[in-house]
Amino acid sequence: MDEQIILDVRELVIEFDTDLGVVRAVDHLDFQLKKGRILGLAGESGCGKSVTALSIMRLLPKPVSRMVQGQVLFNGQDISRLPVDEMHHIRGKKISMIFQEPMTALNPVHGIGKQMIEVYKLHFPKMSFYEMEKAAIQMLEKTGISDPEKVMKKYPHQLSGGMRQRVMISMSLSCEPDILIADEPTTALDVTVQAQILDLIKNLQVKSDMSVILITHDLGVIAENCDDVVVMYAGQIAEKAEVITLFKHPCHPYTRGLLTSIPSLAGESKTILPTIKGDVPSLLNMPTACRFASRCPWVEDICRKIVPLERKMGRNHTAACHLADIQKNEKKDFI
Amino acid sequence: MTILEIKNLKKYFPVTGGVFLRRTGWVYALDGVSFSLNKGETLGIVGESGCGKTTLGRCLMGLYEPSEGQVIIKNQNVFRLNSKQRKKLALNLQMIFQDPFESLDPRQTIKEILEEKYIIHGQKKRDLDSQINNLIKRVGLLPDTLSKFPHEFSGGQRQRIGIARAISLEPEIIICDEPVSALDVSVQSKILNLLLKLQQKMGLTYVFISHDLSVVKHVSDRIAVMYMGKIVEVANADAIYDNGLHPYTKALLSSIPRPDPTSARHRIILKGELPSVENPPFGCRFNTRCEHVQNICREKEPVLLKNAEDPNHLTACHFFN
Question: Which terminal residue of chain A, N or C, has fewer Cβ atoms less than 10 Å from its own Cβ?
């Protein structure tokens, strides 16, 4: 083992109750986060990315959803079975989270200062109010807010989207967590602000040797910021690899399909893009064997009969596909 | 052939405040935008939120009355027409909206949604069946979808319905306001392909509004980059990408994350935030965030000027021309 594994998610199964029956949103998910690395969790809407993050934080909506099976090992300790009060000490302090929409994640009726200080009150009750205030101002400064004293007195609606996201980041980093889970932190922001925020997360990550799980649907964001990538499809892992391997030698047909369907800036204008045929099957009505079979250009009989297990494709590279090796020959591709 | 032309279009929204809701200022959403568009062409409009892209689209549709300036469609000034003429003009001009969840009436079946346009424009309901069947096939949906309601469809399918509604009266111009922003990449590529195919078949002219530069680059012949209610650069799609001159265009291009982890490039990270649109900076509006800023930028407003080498390439900057 070359790097220390800080978070180990094993055999995670999450189920939701719906009017139409029980739905398995995440099915046997396995991944590891290494210390000091940024792990990208990629996939389209409904593939279970956010639910996975919520289950790590033990924030799944109750009582409609539950973790049925699996372990979440944080430094070797299974935090999925911890008593609620012990989890309080980990959540926010050791593992913290940034949410997609900074407007709804901040409380609109309290000032930024009060919300910043709340974190310290909870996790460092012995600090004096003055110290807390000072620490909060320092934190805001670290995230590039130019006059933090002023921002402390403002309310969320008085700040722009980028500023709110900075406040969220400084809040979630105020206890110097070991792991930061960022769930689509820049999806609601403009590209130039997105670049600022991602840069900020990356800088802070390097400075404090934090580990980050970056959840996004944007493969461009993954390529530029992550070290390792997990591609999810319909609640399962399709492919896991280091970032360069994944983009240079994608093995799973879903990953390949996704990569080719992004319009490229360098490509020719007004050409027909390759697509993945069909739609993601409904979670209520999942194919029993390979979940991608109905959309896969390489599908064979075995794909409809046997569930594909993750197979090793190279160093730190696995793909859940029966045909992944053969596909490397690229005999049939997406049209 | 020029099919659409706008001249010095301005749209100011009043800001009210105080006890008597008196006007306290203006939001300069569009401040002197001009361009023309040829038949069959796609003009992409990019910019960040608040730059006036959507206001521009809505002014073109006649949904907003501009404060100043003209919109000329097929040699008719849209805002000089009476309501009858406007209705006739609407046959040529349609819109596709951003949010496929909100732009379809949840209480109408797909058939009712699609019929509505024909009925408004004077056709009888009983003659419509075959037309609507054809229409739904053209956007790649099955005829049995017609009896369903919008909630039964995924985002991509709803956007197809939105497109079917837009092309139903065989318009010449379609304004696409962020048509793929709410969709996943694998669905996005399908919708973009559909739009391109329809353009080829029907000779459509698109105004394609989006914040995503790679999407705009993919569908457009020409691209206009907007910043705070003004066009800062217009050029052919490739020219913007290969040879974008305005510092804002460059920053915008460099901040797009690209799906290639090995590409090393110089990233320009813009400092600061967008200034308030109520109180835009004097001179060049980009001067608060520009890395090449000099005194002249704070004093004089740059105008769109033609590039010496490429007459299709216009830039509004004192230094990069």
Answer: N
- A residues 239-268 near B, CB within 8 Å? 243-244, 247-248, 257-259, 261-267
Chain B's closest residue to A246, CA to CA, is B261
Which residues 13-52 of A have a C-beta within 8 angstroms of B? Answer: 44-45
Q: B248 to chain A: nearest residue by CA?
A: A192
Calculate how close chain A gets to B302, using CA atoms only, in Å: 22
Q: Which of A224, A271, A275 sits opposite B258 (nearest CB)?
A: A224
HSE-CB at A59 with a 13 A cutoff on CA atoms is 17
Q: Which residue of B has its CA nearest to A159?
A: B273
Question: Scanning the structure block, which residue is given the tokens 């069947």?
Answer: B133
| Beta carbons within 8 Å of B65's beta carbon, 6+ residues apart | B79
Report the largest interatomic distance among the alpha carbons of chain A, rounded to a whole angstrom: 68
Whole-number Å distance between alpha carbons of B188 and A230: 22
> Are the beta carbons of B10 and B32 closer than 8 angstroms?
yes
Helix (H, G, I), strand (E, B) or coil at A41: strand
Q: What is the structure's pLDDT at A83?
A: 93
More confident: A3 or A67: A67
Summarize pLDDT for B184-232 with one digit per residue, the tens: 888 999 999 999 999 999 999 999 999 888 899 999 999 999 999 999 9
C-alpha distance from B114 to closest chain A C-alpha (Å): 23
Q: Is B184 on the interface with A (CB under 8 A)?
A: yes
Q: Give the number of other Cβ atoms within 10 Å of residue B171's Cβ.
A: 18
Please say whether the beta carbons of B51 and B286 come within 8 A. no
- DSSP at A80: G
Decide: B163 and B197 in contact? Cβ < 8 Å.
Answer: no
Tell whether B190 lies on the interface with A, counting CB pairs under 8 A.
yes
Stretches in chain B below the pLDDT threshold 50: none
CA distance B158 to chain A (A): 13
Distance (Å) from the alpha carbon of A144 to chain B's nearest alpha carbon: 9
Can you give the three-state secondary structure of chain B, one letter per residue?
Answer: CEEEEEEEEEEEEEEEECCCCEEEEEEEEEEEEEEEEECCCEEEEECCCCCCHHHHHHHHHCCCCCCEEEEEECCEEHHHCCHHHHHHHHCCEEEECCCCCCCCCCCCCHHHHHHHHHHHCCCCHHHCHHHHHHHHHHCCCCHHHHHCCHHHCCHHHHHHHHHHHHHCCCCCEEEEECCCCCCCHHHHHHHHHHHHHHHHHHCCEEEEEECCHHHHHHHCCEEEEEECCEEEEEEEHHHHHHHCCCHHHHHHHHCCCCCCCCCCCCCCCCCCCCCCCCCCCCCCCCCCCCCCCCHHHHHCCCCCEECCCCCCCEECCCCCC
Q: What is the DSSP letter of A100?
A: S
CA atoms within 13 A on the CB side of A137: 12
Residue B110 near chain A (CB below 8 Å) = no
Read off the pLDDT of residues A107-125 as tens digits, 9 standing for 90 and up: 999 999 999 999 999 999 9
DSSP secondary structure string, A291-325? TTGGG-TT--HHHHHSPPPEEEEETTEEEE-TTHH
